[in-house]
């Protein structure tokens, strides 16, 4: 439980419930857009980094619902302007994580909603929901007396038992920047022979949730943003995973995640493959 002078008590369980409610409404809206012709509305960092009308509409809905329920909270979203708040709570929104999948009609895309509380060390995620839009499958987590608890469709999540590196099924993603992709491909070339296999499914949030549910053994990606992982890393922690943000070889945030018992071995392999700024140069 956390407290601030403006709005009283913030229960992480209640914040998680609100996150799930608004994520469900946004997902329903995204599905209506999927019934028609999905087209690119704009591009961001490059011509392959796209935004659809559904992204914008879903974020507008999320913001409206959260402002109505908690008008004093701050909001940070992928598609809109940051909104300041006075309550000490901030919502971090990704209206469609996996927009390119959505554009192509591929099922791996999700709404992600996280609630953070401001403290002496900055913002800390205390609740979050990741909702896979096509299936409705919902991962939710919140802090309970300081410890994360998480579920998938109401059932507690748990990572797979730690695997040795050569038996790890690893998820990853690639940047929209061509030069960063080139570095990532070189690092992947070094990592791939050392693991069971690699999957690239197009949604950071869902990859982390699948790891939490025992469908993957590890995850690594450079170029992630806070809205991609704010909710999902809490789910992963609740399931027994460990995660860390490092500086990647191209200077962007590098997210590494694995079951706690396998994390150090995987991090060593990631570093040896050249993913990190201070690791070997892959080539």
Automatic annotation (TrEMBL):
InterPro entries assigned to the protein according to its UniProt record, in alphabetical order: Inositol_monoP_metal-BS, Inositol_monophosphatase-like, Inositol_monophosphatase_CS
Record keywords: Hydrolase, Magnesium, Metal-binding
Organism of this sequence: freshwater metagenome
Sample GO molecular function, one term: metal ion binding
Protein name: Unannotated protein
Pfam families: Inositol_P
Signal peptide location: none
Cited Gene3D superfamilies: 3.40.190.80, Fructose-1,6-Bisphosphatase, subunit A, domain 1 (3.30.540.10)
GO biological process: inositol metabolic process; phosphatidylinositol phosphate biosynthetic process; signal transduction
């Amino acid at each position: 439980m956390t407290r601030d002078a403006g709005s009283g008590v913030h229960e992480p369980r209640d914040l998680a419930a609100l996150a799930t409610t608004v994520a469900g409404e946004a997902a329903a809206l995204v599905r209506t857009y999927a019934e028609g012709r999905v087209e690119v509305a704009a591009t961001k960092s490059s011509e392959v980094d796209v935004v659809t009308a559904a992204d914008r509409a879903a974020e507008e809905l999320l913001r409206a619902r959260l402002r109505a329920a908690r008008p004093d909270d701050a909001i940070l979203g992928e598609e809109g302007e940051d909104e300041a708040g006075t309550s000490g709570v901030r919502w971090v929104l990704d209206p469609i994580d996996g927009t390119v999948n959505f554009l192509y009609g591929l099922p791996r895309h999700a709404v992600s909603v996280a609630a953070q509380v401001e403290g002496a060390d900055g913002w800390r995620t205390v609740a979050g929901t990741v909702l896979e839009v096509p299936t409705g499958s919902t991962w939710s987590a919140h802090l309970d007396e300081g410890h994360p608890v998480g579920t998938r469709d109401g059932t507690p999540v748990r990572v797979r038992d730690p695997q040795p590196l050569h038996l790890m099924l690893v998820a990853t993603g690639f940047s929209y920047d061509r030069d960063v992709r080139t570095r990532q491909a070189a690092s992947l070339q070094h990592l791939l022979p050392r693991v069971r296999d690699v999957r690239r499914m197009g949604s950071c949030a869902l990859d982390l949730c699948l790891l939490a549910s025992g469908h993957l053994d590890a995850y690594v990606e450079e170029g992630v943003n806070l809205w991609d992982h704010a909710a999902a890393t809490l789910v992963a922690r609740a399931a027994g995973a460990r995660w860390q943000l490092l500086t990647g070889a191209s200077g962007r945030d590098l997210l590494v995640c694995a079951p706690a018992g396998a994390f150090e071995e995987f991090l060593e392999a990631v570093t040896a493959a050249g993913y990190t700024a201070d690791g070997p140069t892959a080539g």
